[in-house]
Amino acid sequence: ISYAMANQATWALAGPVAVVAVMCYIASFGMGCGPIPGLLSSEIFNPRIRGAGMSLCFVTHWVFNFVIGQAFLPVVEAVGG
Description:
mainly alpha
């Protein structure tokens, strides 16, 4: 992806190659380790409180995804990337 985006001025297929690479990554993550946190957290809680526990787990997961996504580019710029 980095190569494709760095050479997009001289390589006509840079954009489509980057999109296909990201789609392949998402598909392989979904078939691999992606669903494991949801499966494990559902087994941790007692069935009586499983709904509330799963809600808390997934809200926490998405909040931290958002925080990391918002902080990534400022950190890269601060480091000099």
